[in-house]
Amino acid sequence: MDVDSCIVQYEELSQDIFKTSIWQQIPGKMVWDAWAGNAWFSGEELAEAVKEVVARNVSAEEMDALKRKGTPLENAGLLDTNREVCKTFVVSVRKATNVTVRFRSYPNSTGRTDACAIWEAARATSAAPLYFPVMTIAGEQYFDGGLTSNNPIFRVKDELEDGLNSPAPRCVVSIGTGRIDQATGERGPWKRFAKWITGGYGMVGWTLLALATDTEAKHLEILTDENNSRFRQNYYRFNVVGNIGSIGLDEWKKLPVMRKETAAYLKEEGTVKWIKECAEKLVVKK
User: Fold this and answer.
1) What is the residue range of 220's domain?
2) Quick check: is 196 in a domain?
3) Does residue 266 sit within a domain?
4) pLDDT tens, 183-231?
């Protein structure tokens, strides 16, 4: 899938998985769920939506291999032995140990592989607190790595050095989810209501949510820590500043705002300069 196709799939998927039920529309229902620790949306619906995307985009070669094994297309494995495709890993947290793990599409230098389906890894890394319940893979429960790796740039650094034996990458591109000023800043009437009705205890969920979605702290650490001087030589960070930073994960109806602000950001002089530099570094000179 190319980037444009991924965006289209995301827009369609978002509308399906972030549907609110009649019960959720009752005033205070989502606040109560946050206080009680109940997920707002269905993990099963998210899993089915991802399975559909996987099944529609399996390559012809992999489709033949899956059919020979009698494996449904939606259960295509995460591990891809084709060296020509982009290596990918996603981050999740093992609930029992609170240890951050990486689900890889490739074997690393230790020979480790992650024997799970694409949809399972996607479901595990998407199990954001409040939004979706934990995901179980091979008897282990996982949730979104946002609370420990909301910006997994250091996981990338570790993977390059330890897993791929490549400490000096040609180019590192980090894409943020929108810059916000305060992790616990006010985000609308429901948050203020939660604070009032619970005496402040209901704010814990929103604070964790904000920490899980604010990705700037790790970026600043990359820029200021001398231990990262070599890594940041070819490091570029793109992050839109504006209303996009306060858009919630489930607010798919605000996608037009995201498009508008992102388009404006991409036209800024500094952004254009960085994109050009990235492209030049990625070109293989013969």
Assistant:
1) 169-285
2) yes
3) yes
4) 434 444 444 444 444 444 444 444 444 544 457 777 888 888 887 777 8
